[in-house]
Amino acid sequence: MDIKSYIEQHEGRFLNELFSLIRIPSISASPQHKQDMLKCAERWKELLLEAGVDKAEIIPSQGNPLVYAEKHISADAPTVLIYAHYDVMPAEPMHLWKSQPFEPVIRDGHIWGRGADDDKGQSMIQVKAFEYMVKEKLLKHNVKFIFEGEEEIGSPSLNVFLKEHRELLKADVILVSDTSMLGADTPSLTIGLRGLAYWEIEITGPNRDLHSGHFGGAVANPINVLCNLLSQITDEKGRITIPHFYDDVEDISNTERNMIAHIPFDEKQYMHAIGVKALKGEEGYSTLERNSCRPSFDICGIWGGYTGEGSKTILPSKAYAKVSCRLVPHQSHHKISQLFVDYINRIAPDYVQVKVTPMHGGEGYVCPLSHPAYKAAEKGFAKAFGKQPLGVRRGGSIPIICDFEQLLGIKTILMGFGLESDAIHSPNENFPLDIFRKGIEAVVAFHRAYDECITPQ
Question: Which residues, 6 or more positions from 12, have their beta carbon under 8 angstroms from its beta carbon?
Answer without folding.
Answer: none
